[in-house]
Amino acid sequence: MEKIISITAQNVCRLDELLRKKIPELIKKEISNSKIRRLIVAGAVEVNKKQCRIPGYELQEGAAVKLHLDEDKLFFEKTPDDIAFEVTEKSVLFEDENIIVVNKPSFFPTEAGMVGSRDNLHAAVIRYLHSKNPALRNPPYAGVMHRLDRETSGVILFTKSRSVNAPCHDMFEKHTARKVYQAVVCADRMNKKISEKNFIVRMFMGRISAKSQAAKWGSVSESKGGVDSVTEFSVLKQIELSGKKYFLVEARPLTGRTHQIRVHLASVGLPILGDELYGGKTYWRIMLHACRLSFPHPVTGENMTVSCEFSDLAVK
């Protein structure tokens, strides 16, 4: 049930600082800084009878602050349907003293998010490395160099030594590391891109959803902050899943924007199966898989390619 809380600023201060101090006193519960920020950004706060969505807004002495607070919603934490996963020798695709490359499963985040207790692949890699050398007094190092979305499976690289962080960062930043994905897309044979077999999508991209809503990206002009994005695609074959026909597409991103492959495919009428955010049909997961990573070894310079099968192409 929503309650309205009125607070008066006693001196000049930031809006988030005032709420951080006053809300726990009024509701008799601790509240995190991130929740306070979300309240403000979501439009639940008024300053002098006007909605304010700026956490750092500077209040003047005597300012009247009104907070619309629904404690049930505020303190509800959605439990993600993450799988339980441990890195084993079977899921390690390559390892030496400098790097480790792992086959990430779907429904497992790459790294820790806002929910501190949530397990993730980065933590699982550290546990695996520690299990190989349990005599270490402290957990071994593992560096995150790139990420895959939670539902995206496939090849992902971590560093094992800080000394190779810089060259690994550079190869992803400068795109000397080349990623190749496979995606199952919803389409019929009349789609122009399917008939072309090979095509390129290029657009200026940016966030198109409000900050208070689920993050969604799309076409945004350069003048409004959009950034250039390019992906090469090849149509591999038609496949059948659960009695329905789809197409398997290979994607080779030449830039690294958030949701880039998902947005690019949806923009040409080929949304990924399971990707309901971008118009795909309902499925048990988003059918996007990082199947191959090619890169120069950060120490030897040797050109390497690590790959893994898209195992979830089997009917679920």
Features of this protein?
eleven-stranded mixed sheet, Pseudouridine synthase, 7 helices, alpha+beta, Structural Genomics Hypothetical 15.5 Kd Protein In mrcA-pckA Intergenic Region, Chain A, 2 domains
Brief digest:
The chain is an alpha+beta fold. The chain has helices spanning 15-27, 33-41, 71-74, 121-132, 165-173, 192-196, 260-267; strands spanning 2-8, 13-14, 45-47, 50-51, 58-59, 64-70, 92-95, 99-104, 143-144, 153-159, 178-185, 198-207, 217-219, 227-241, 244-253, 288-296, 303-307. 19% of the residues lie in helices and 32% in strands.
Description of the structure:
One of its GO terms (biological process) is enzyme-directed rRNA pseudouridine synthesis. Belongs to the pseudouridine synthase RluA family. By secondary structure, the chain is an alpha+beta fold. It folds into 2 domains: 2-74, RNA-binding S4 domain (Structural Genomics Hypothetical 15.5 Kd Protein In mrcA-pckA Intergenic Region, Chain A), CATH 3.10.290; 89-313, 2-Layer Sandwich (Pseudouridine synthase), CATH 3.30.2350.10. 19% of the residues lie in helices and 32% in strands. The chain has 7 helices and 17 strands. Strands 7, 8, 9, 10, 11, 12, 13, 14, 15, 16 and 17 form an 11-stranded mixed β-sheet that branches. It starts with a strand and ends in a 9-residue tail after the last strand.
Strand content: 25-35%
CATH homologous superfamily grouping of the largest domain? Pseudouridine synthase
Q: Major beta sheet, specifics?
A: 11 strands, mixed
CATH topology of the largest domain: Pseudouridine synthase
Count of domains? 2
Task: Work out the helix count.
Answer: 7
H-E order: EEHHEEEEHEEHEEHEHEEEEHEE
How far apart are the termini?
41 Å
Structural class: alpha+beta
Tell me the name of the CATH class of the largest domain: Alpha Beta
Low-confidence stretches: none
Total beta strand runs = 17
The CATH architecture of the largest domain would be: 2-Layer Sandwich
The shape is globular
Helix percentage: 10-25%
Enzyme class: isomerase
Family: Belongs to the pseudouridine synthase RluA family.
Domain RNA-binding S4: 13-80
GO molecular function: 23S rRNA pseudouridine(1911/1915/1917) synthase activity; RNA binding
